[in-house]
Specification:
Elements (H helix, E strand, L loop, with lengths): L8 E5 L5 E6 H9 L3 E12 L4 E10 L15 H7 L4
Parallel strand pairs: 1-4
Antiparallel strand pairs: 1-2, 3-4
Protein backbone atom coordinates (compact mmCIF):
# COMPACT_ATOMS: atom_id res chain seq x y z
CA UNK A 1 0.00 0.00 0.00
CA UNK A 2 1.34 3.37 -0.94
CA UNK A 3 -0.23 6.21 0.97
CA UNK A 4 -0.87 7.50 4.43
CA UNK A 5 -1.81 5.47 7.49
CA UNK A 6 -5.51 5.99 8.08
CA UNK A 7 -6.29 7.09 4.53
CA UNK A 8 -8.71 4.16 4.20
CA UNK A 9 -11.64 3.21 6.41
CA UNK A 10 -12.57 0.23 8.56
CA UNK A 11 -15.94 -1.03 9.78
CA UNK A 12 -16.33 -1.31 13.57
CA UNK A 13 -18.70 -3.96 14.89
CA UNK A 14 -20.07 -4.31 18.40
CA UNK A 15 -19.26 -7.42 20.43
CA UNK A 16 -22.58 -8.81 19.13
CA UNK A 17 -21.52 -8.17 15.50
CA UNK A 18 -23.85 -5.16 15.11
CA UNK A 19 -22.34 -2.39 12.96
CA UNK A 20 -21.41 0.68 15.02
CA UNK A 21 -19.67 2.88 12.50
CA UNK A 22 -16.73 3.49 10.25
CA UNK A 23 -13.34 4.70 11.50
CA UNK A 24 -9.97 5.34 9.91
CA UNK A 25 -7.64 2.39 9.51
CA UNK A 26 -5.30 4.12 11.95
CA UNK A 27 -7.99 4.14 14.66
CA UNK A 28 -8.88 0.50 13.89
CA UNK A 29 -5.22 -0.48 14.10
CA UNK A 30 -4.87 1.28 17.47
CA UNK A 31 -7.96 -0.54 18.79
CA UNK A 32 -6.46 -3.88 17.75
CA UNK A 33 -3.05 -3.08 19.25
CA UNK A 34 -4.67 -2.01 22.54
CA UNK A 35 -6.63 -5.31 22.56
CA UNK A 36 -9.90 -3.37 22.64
CA UNK A 37 -10.89 -4.97 19.34
CA UNK A 38 -10.10 -8.07 17.34
CA UNK A 39 -9.29 -8.13 13.66
CA UNK A 40 -11.96 -9.94 11.64
CA UNK A 41 -10.98 -9.04 8.09
CA UNK A 42 -7.94 -7.37 6.61
CA UNK A 43 -6.88 -6.16 3.21
CA UNK A 44 -3.74 -7.34 1.45
CA UNK A 45 -1.91 -4.16 2.45
CA UNK A 46 0.51 -4.30 5.38
CA UNK A 47 1.73 -1.74 7.90
CA UNK A 48 5.38 -2.04 8.89
CA UNK A 49 7.19 -0.70 11.93
CA UNK A 50 10.55 -1.52 13.48
CA UNK A 51 9.22 -4.56 15.29
CA UNK A 52 5.80 -5.31 13.83
CA UNK A 53 4.20 -6.06 10.52
CA UNK A 54 0.42 -5.84 10.68
CA UNK A 55 -2.28 -6.21 8.03
CA UNK A 56 -4.47 -3.22 7.25
CA UNK A 57 -7.79 -3.79 9.07
CA UNK A 58 -11.03 -3.47 7.14
CA UNK A 59 -13.41 -5.00 9.76
CA UNK A 60 -12.82 -5.07 13.53
CA UNK A 61 -15.04 -6.27 16.38
CA UNK A 62 -14.94 -4.61 19.79
CA UNK A 63 -14.02 -6.88 22.69
CA UNK A 64 -16.68 -5.37 24.98
CA UNK A 65 -20.31 -4.62 24.28
CA UNK A 66 -21.11 -0.93 23.77
CA UNK A 67 -24.68 0.06 24.57
CA UNK A 68 -26.14 2.15 21.78
CA UNK A 69 -29.28 4.12 22.64
CA UNK A 70 -32.06 3.46 20.17
CA UNK A 71 -34.34 6.23 18.94
CA UNK A 72 -37.84 6.13 20.30
CA UNK A 73 -40.58 5.56 17.80
CA UNK A 74 -42.63 8.70 17.25
CA UNK A 75 -46.35 8.22 17.72
CA UNK A 76 -48.36 8.81 14.57
CA UNK A 77 -51.09 11.30 15.38
CA UNK A 78 -52.40 14.56 13.99
CA UNK A 79 -49.94 16.72 15.94
CA UNK A 80 -46.82 14.81 14.83
CA UNK A 81 -47.98 14.59 11.21
CA UNK A 82 -48.51 18.37 11.10
CA UNK A 83 -45.12 18.91 12.76
CA UNK A 84 -43.48 16.64 10.17
CA UNK A 85 -45.14 18.53 7.29
CA UNK A 86 -44.31 21.99 8.62
CA UNK A 87 -47.85 22.64 9.96
CA UNK A 88 -49.39 22.72 6.46
Amino acid sequence: MIGRVGANRALVLNATFEPLGIVSTRRALLLVLATRAELLHATEAMFHSERLTLPEPSVVRLARYVRVPHNRTVAVNRRTVFARDGHR
